[in-house]
Design goal:
Blueprint: E1 9-12, E2 16-23, E3 26-35, E4 38-47, H1 51-64
Amino acid sequence: MLPPSDIVYRRVTPNFFVVSNFRNGKIWYDRCNFAGRFMNCVLINYPAAEKRQWDSVVTWISATLASR
């Protein structure tokens, strides 16, 4: 499945990329860190109504991905 063309948040660096959007009352957040020949990725879907509660969880999980 391809991400929609109307992505709300997108960030691409030499070390990682992030895309995020709203779909069907939910937020999806996809982050992949490049680690040599590999990529470490996380995809999180959560209710948009709970965004404030999930912000710190998403940030913490994203920070735990290895980028070596």
